[in-house]
Structures are given as structure tokens and as C-alpha cells.
Write a structure and sequence with these properties.
It holds the Pfam family LtrA. This protein is mainly α. It is built from 21 helices and no strands. The protein folds into two domains: 212 residues, no CATH class; 379 residues, no CATH class.
Length: 648
């Protein structure tokens, strides 16, 4: 399975609806992969039919990856593409090029997505029809009836396919751009997906052996449908065995003919899941590693950056360890096909949370780096301006090397900024003899604008340049930079004890950091879902062998529940990153958490605690086995730190 379309390792979620869009398309694409995996573990063979169908599925994944990036599920429902609200304008009525371009891209993307999903479901349906036709020929040769297990999906997928194609027809029609049509499309997709999941569950629940034949006396078990003993298929065509008196054993032959030849595939569910989990973790590592360029280019790095970098590395490593080295590591799931399917479905919240968590880790690392760098920058800049005693009327101040190199590291030219100030203060090229209150205001405005410029340059260094800033914020920034900007004047005349959120400059910065702050609100919840999902997955996989495996499962769930309590940090009167000192006690705890640089260290500490608990339980499990084999005597706690004697 490729990484789900719309992958955001190199981007951000600008608002909650971006997250909803990503989750929606991840769910759809994940099920495309999961349903194909369920098919492959039963029926895949290395023939031209399956190779061709696999190729077509990969083409569809490519189409989805190209069209779902940046697509908004609220398009034509809550707002029109390129607008902040629903606009009844048709394409023929549009005159704004930017609005026309966004509407055109959204319309084409929506149509390609609808067609790709319908085509994918049709290919999956044809695969099961192919299996059914082959089963009918086999049944005719063996004089058996085709098991109901093989008839469920060919018939049932016809219903889900009709829903997906109906959604495609609605999308391709003019109704697709209406509110009702856009909603109907998602309703049909949801109904189709739910029906497919239920149909696959029914198929996995049914037995291969036809119930009308009854259980065979010599079968090991009739309870386990997917692991019951069945002779290899060639035995169905063997000659009848001869009894001791030289006569054929008709009863044994009859029983053998009643056995349906269960298809065998070399595709293992565990291997597929481990493979895609490795890909997801690898993509996350790649996204986090991509931030190192910003770290190298940054002018100032505090020790908080290195702490968060180490925390990010610990989180990624322990995510891989907890999945691949858990109590069910390197073992295929036991039990019925339905249990295996449940184990597969539980990977959905696990994988989705991993992708969102690693994206959140990357963004929190960048946010911490930005805030710490910006803080140190302004502490040093104010000190330098004070120490250098810059004279706005002296042209030689433009050559001040100390400030020049300081701003050059931050992407600004001191000479340009100083000359801009001097041009505002001079009249016809000459400086006034006496400083006035108006000149003092000009200097204050210039300084406040320079403050924002430095903040934006540092932001662009870490977040990927000015292209990541939306057009609305860009307009407000340009208004702030104007010589007689009303925005700056309003900021300048705010009372001393005004809330930081009242300043236009702080509003701009809050807008830029909104997606990273939003991630901090829910990153603990994502880590909790991962640990809880791991615990439940381990239990569904197979029954724990001893109390120590039970301990690992329970500690994972309990640690996840403990992390959920961190979501309470979102409660608070002031939902802003900066508040006045006298209002800090009313500020939501999540913002204090961010400004203490503790988001990633907290998560890393939680994973490390779980890691050491599991190491201790693994050690105790090994000691218990050694004591059972006679290699150890006495309580386990006394031998915990002692090496075991090798058996002679």
C-alpha cells in the first residue's frame, strides 16, 4: 500500500477541517488496501490476471495521490472553493482568476476521486467474480456445491459497487457542485464502505466446509474454520486406498470427496501489516529528518531544540519497538478468519494515529525551534540596539557591522532597514534639528515593523518559506508594513496592560502558528490511541500465554488512558499562546505546556516508562521459564539482576 494520498509530511493542517479531510481520505484509501489484502491472503496467485489487477490498483492509488492532496471535504457543502462561504456563482459568472482556478481544480479533483474509487471497487468485484467462476468449475469436477463463503462477496459487492458508481455519476453531473449533491456523494461512499466491511466480515465468519455435509469424523476440529485439518488438494485426486482384504475403502473416499479444496496463498497478513507499518514509520522519519535543514539554517538554537530533537528520536524508535517487539511479535494471529479481520481493522486507528502523531512531532519540533529562536533573537537585538547607540540621523549607522551581521543571519539587510527609517525622519534629504514627538512615533512604528519582519523571517526559515503563508495573512502583513499603517498605529496606542492578543502583530503570528498549536492540543490523544490500540490488538491477535504478557497488554492500555488526561490541558478561559501576566492563571494549560518546551519530552517520557516496564516484564517472563525448567530457584525478584546460568 502506498502512503495514503494527500500525505502531509511536508505540510501543515491549517484548521480542523483539513484534519477531517485527511482522516476521511485516509480511511477510504486504507480500506482499499485492506480489502485487497484480505483478498490476497486467500486467493492471490502469481498469474497474469492478478498482476494486471494489481497494476490497475496501483494506477488508481496514483490518481488518488495526485488529486486528494489539499482537497477539502467541505467544498460545495460549507464553502465554495476559493471562497470563505458558499457562493452560488457558476464558472461562467466568475471573473476572479484565483477563484476560477481553485474551483476548476476542486471540480476536476472531485471527479477523478469519484471515478477512481468506483473503478477500484469494480476491480475488486471482478477479482471475486473470477474466484467464483473458478470455484464453479472446480465444484463441477468434484461434484460439490460452491461454499456460501465464496458466493457472499460476488453478490454483495454488486450492491456496494452500485453505490460507488452512483456517487461517481452524481459527481460528474451538474448536481455534484450543489450542496445536496456533494452531501449525497459522501453518503453513498460511506454506505458503500460500511457494506463492504460487513460483507467481508460475513465471508470471514463462514466456513469453507458446507454445513450440509456435516463435520468429518477424522477432522481435528470443526470449530476453527480457517485452521481445520484439510488434506492437500492433490489428495483429492488420489486413487482409492485399498483395505487389508484387498477392497477399496469407499467410505474414506467418499469423505475425502466431500472436502472443499481450500485455496492456499503465500501472502501472510502479518507480513503485509508489518510492511505498511514500516513504510509509515519511514515516511514519518523522513518528514522529521527534513526539518534538519531548517535547524542548520537557523541563526540561534537554544538547548530546548536539542532536547526536543532527542525526544522526537526516542518517540519514533519506541513506536517501532512497541509494535515489532510486543507480546505477539513474529507470530501470525491465531483463530478464525473473523478474528484476523478484526485484528486487521484495529490497525486502522493505530496507523492513522501514527501518521498524525509523527506529523505532530515534526510540527512541535519546528514550533519549539521557532519560539526559542525568536525569543533569543529579540533579547539579543534589543541589547545590540541599546549598546550600539544607533543615531537615526547619522548615515554612518547604516554600516554598523555588529547589527549588520546580526540581521544578515536572519535574512534582513540592516542598511535597507536603517535607510527606510532615515527616509521617514528626513525632510527633503536633511534631518530635522530638533527631535519631535512625531519623530519618536516614526521610530516606534519602524521598530514594530522590524519586529514583525524578523519574526516572519525566522518563521519562513523553519516552516518552509513565504509560500506557506495564506493570501489573507499576506495581505494583512503588507498592510502592517506600510509607512503610515493604521494597524501599527493602533498597536502603538494600545494601553500598557492590554492583552497581547489585542496587537495586530501578535494576531498575525498566532495565525501563522495556528496549525502547530492545534497539533499540540491533540498530540497526547494520538499517543494514547496508539498505546490503547496496541494493547487491544495484542489481545485480539491471540490469548496471552502468561501473566507477564497480560501485564504488557494492560500497561499499554493504562498508559494510553493516562495520556488521555493530558487533553484536560485544553481547558481554560484564555485560548491564546500569549496572555498578560496577570491573566496567566486563566490561560489554558496546553499553551503553558508549549512555552515550557515540554510537549515532546512529556510524550517521550511516557513511551520510555512503558518501554522500561515491558523490559522488566520480559525479564520476569524469562526468569519464570528458567525456574520452570529447573535453572533457577527462589523468588523472581531476587534473580532479576543476576545472569542466568547456561544449561550444561
Amino acid at each position: 500500500m502506498p502512503v495514503p494520498p494527500g500525505s502531509t509530511w511536508n505540510g501543515n493542517f491549517n484548521d480542523a477541517w483539513d484534519t477531517v479531510s485527511y482522516i476521511a481520505f485516509f480511511l477510504v484509501v486504507w480500506w482499499l488496501w485492506a480489502s485487497q489484502t484480505l483478498y490476497s491472503i486467500h486467493f492471490y496467485t502469481n498469474d497474469w490476471f492478478h498482476l494486471l489487477s494489481l497494476f490497475l490498483q496501483l494506477v488508481i492509488f496514483g490518481l488518488l495521490a495526485a488529486t486528494t492532496r489539499g482537497y477539502d471535504v467541505t467544498a460545495y457543502i460549507l464553502k465554495s472553493p476559493g471562497a470563505d462561504r458558499l457562493d452560488p456563482q457558476t464558472v461562467d459568472q466568475m471573473f476572479d482568476p484565483d477563484r476560477y482556478q481553485k474551483d476548476r481544480i476542486a471540480s476536476y479533483s472531485m471527479r477523478v476521486i469519484a471515478f477512481a474509487l468506483a473503478a477500484s471497487r469494480a476491480i475488486h468485484w471482478f477479482q471475486h467474480i473470477f474466484v467464483l467462476n473458478y470455484a464453479r468449475r472446480t465444484a463441477k469436477e468434484l461434484k460439490l456445491s460452491v461454499p456460501l463463503k465464496l458466493r457472499v462477496l460476488p453478490v454483495g459487492l454488486a450492491v456496494s459497487n452500485s453505490m460507488f458508481w452512483a456517487a461517481a455519476v452524481v459527481t460528474l453531473s451538474s448536481r455534484g457542485k450543489t450542496v445536496s449533491g456533494a452531501k449525497l456523494k459522501f453518503i453513498l461512499w460511506a454506505a458503500g464502505l460500511v457494506s463492504e466491511v460487513l460483507l467481508h466480515g460475513v465471508m470471514e465468519h463462514l466456513k469453507w466446509q458446507d454445513i450440509s455435509f456435516g463435520p468429518l469424523k477424522w477432522s481435528n476440529s470443526s470449530k476453527d474454520t480457517s485452521h481445520e485439518y484439510v488434506p492437500a488438494q492433490p489428495e483429492l485426486h488420489e486413487l482409492q486406498p485399498v483395505s487389508s482384504n484387498g477392497q477399496s475403502s469407499q467410505s474414506t473416499s467418499a469423505r475425502k470427496k466431500r472436502i472443499w479444496p481450500i485455496p492456499r496463498s503465500n501472502v501472510q497478513l502479518r507480513e503485509r501489516l508489518e510492511g505498511i507499518t514500516t513504510v509509515i514509520l519511514g515516511e514519518g522519519i523522513n518528514g522529521i529528518a527534513g526539518t534538519f535543514y531548517a535547524v542548520i539554517a537557523a541563526p540561534e538554537l537554544g538547548e530546548q531544540v536539542y532536547t526536543n530533537l532527542a525526544s522526537a528520536a526516542i518517540i519514533v524508535y519506541l513506536l517501532a519497538y512497541l509494535y515489532f517487539e510486543g507480546p505477539t511479535a513474529n507470530r501470525n494471529p491465531k483463530g478464525s478468519g473473523l478474528r484476523q479481520m478484526m485484528w486487521l481493522l484495529l490497525h486502522l486507528p493505530f496507523m492513522l494515529s501514527i501518521m498524525l502523531l509523527l506529523l505532530g512531532v515534526k510540527n512541535q519540533f519546528l514550533l519549539t525551534s521557532y519560539l526559542s529562536t525568536a525569543t533569543e533573537t529579540f533579547d539579543k537585538f534589543d541589547t545590540k540596539l541599546w549598546q550600539e547607540e544607533i543615531d537615526p540621523t547619522d548615515s554612518n549607522s547604516a554600516e554598523n557591522s555588529s547589527i549588520k551581521w546580526f540581521l544578515l543571519k536572519r535574512g534582513l539587510k540592516w542598511a535597507d532597514e536603517f535607510n527606510e527609517l532615515r527616509a521617514r525622519l528626513t525632510h527633503n534629504g536633511s534631518a530635522p534639528l530638533d527631535a519631535s514627538e512625531e519623530d519618536s512615533d516614526v521610530i516606534t512604528i519602524w521598530y514594530m515593523q522590524l519586529y514583525l519582519k524578523i519574526m516572519l523571517k525566522v518563521y519562513e526559515t523553519f516552516m518552509g518559506g513565504s509560500k506557506v503563508i495564506d493570501s489573507e495573512t499576506q495581505v494583512k502583513i503588507q498592510q502592517y508594513y506600510q509607512a503610515n499603517s493604521t494597524l501599527v498605529i493602533e498597536d502603538m496606542h494600545l494601553p500598557y496592560d492590554a492583552a497581547p492578543s489585542s496587537y495586530h502583530s501578535e494576531q498575525i503570528i498566532d495565525k501563522l502558528l495556528g496549525s502547530s498549536v492545534l497539533g499540540a492540543r491533540y498530540i497526547a490523544g494520538l499517543a494514547a490511541i496508539i498505546l490503547i490500540s496496541l494493547g487491544i490488538m495484542n489481545r485480539i491477535h491471540s490469548k496471552p500465554r502468561d501473566r507477564f504478557q497480560w501485564g504488557i497488554i494492560l500497561t499499554r492500555i493504562l498508559m494510553g488512558v493516562a495520556l488521555l488526561f493530558l487533553l484536560l490541558l485544553n481547558i481554560g478561559h484564555y485560548q491564546s499562546l500569549w496572555v498578560a501576566e496577570y491573566d496567566e492563571y486563566l490561560q489554558a494549560g496546553v499553551f503553558k505546556w508549549i512555552l515550557k518546551w515540554s510537549v515532546l519530552p512529556t510524550l517521550a517520557a511516557a513511551f520510555m516508562i512503558e518501554f522500561f516496564i515491558e523490559l522488566a516484564l520480559h525479564r520476569l517472563a524469562g526468569l519464570a521459564i528458567a525456574r520452570k525448567r529447573g535453572r533457577l530457584n527462589g523468588p523472581l525478584r531476587r534473580a532479576f539482576f543476576r545472569p542466568l546460568n547456561r544449561p550444561k
